[in-house]
Amino acid sequence: xxxxxxxxxxxxxxxxxxxxxxxxxxEPQVISLCFDEMDVELVKEKFETRLSxxxxxxxxxxxxxxxxxxxxxxxxxxxxTLVDGVAEVGYLLLPEFHGKQYGTESLAALVEWATKTHQIxxxxxxxxxxxxxxxxxxxxxxxxxxxxxxxxxxxxxKWYADHHYQRR
Length: 168
What we know:
This protein is α+β, with helices and mostly antiparallel strands and 168 residues long.
């Protein structure tokens, strides 16, 4: 399986992607508005679950590594899990690739692929309050703010609202 855009290629995560996955889950600029830093063992457990093959009827995440086609460099991950036919999307990019439209390009391609290939028509995403970059990505990809849940998530001892987005 491979999803491509003008600049990007997205392929299923594999064992060789462990260093990227770990970096994405420990890099302060990436996780500051997503979650607290996790113990390496917890990140490893999460990684192992992402290695399971994805099927539309399964309960695992489709986790894809985003690679810059020109340089061959892995720049992040994207994917979704299906719950009752609704895809919950997520993505993490290395800081040096923020602000270059890679998040928008990869998410748009993922949604287009899922819609065409698996007839998925409903998508959700949850963004932590203050994560303006992720909110912009979602809006550019056709998502709209559905609701805000105040004091929903604690990061670094501070409580944040969750912004729930939908694309229907």
